[in-house]
Amino acid sequence: xxxxxxxxxxxxxxxxxxxxxxxxxxxxxxxxxxxxxxxxxxxxxxxxxxxxxxxxxxxxxxxxxxxxxxxxxxxxxxxxxxxxxxxxxxxxxxxxxxxxxxxxxxxxxxxxxxxxxxxxxxxxxxxxxxxxxxxxxxxxxxxxxxxxxxxxxxxxxxxxxxxxxxxxxxxxxxxxxxxxxxxxxxxxxxxxxxxxxxxxx
Length: 201
Prior knowledge:
Elements: H1 2-39, E1 49-56, E2 59-66, H2 71-78, E3 97-100, E4 103-106, E5 119-121, H3 134-141, H4 151-164, H5 170-176, H6 187-199
Parallel strand pairs: 1-5
Antiparallel strand pairs: 1-2, 3-4, 3-5
Helix pairs in contact: 3-6, 4-6
């Protein structure tokens, strides 16, 4: 009885060791093959940089950036203009709206190198010294903000909306401002601010 028990235990131990060795060896073998095949791959392309020159808020600015850098990241991280906000980073919220050659652009969706030589206006460039832009003042007068995170993009989009002539009715303003999301829900006041500014031009 005792001999039978020892023999069964020995076989089980031996089977376990063999099985364990096989389990450990197979992944290591796969890694070795993967490493060999990876060595045959060409090296990853080096990061390419390009000099980007812009007129930002009336001032000549330049920076050498990775060609994959978005206009948003150029403004915030390289030109120290944090007023332009990064929201969804997918072009869905409008928080990053700036004006490029007087046209509104979602700066998170466009590469900086695509706008070499362009004129860019950010929220920092709207005021004239201590005097606010009329739409900035209207946002204050109409309480067109709550948390304020979307406000720079809303105001720049509103400036373009007025310049484009899309302010004939509240419904038209809402339609042409629909790319800018306000999570706080200040839409009624934003429309009122844009409408007032358009009438006072």
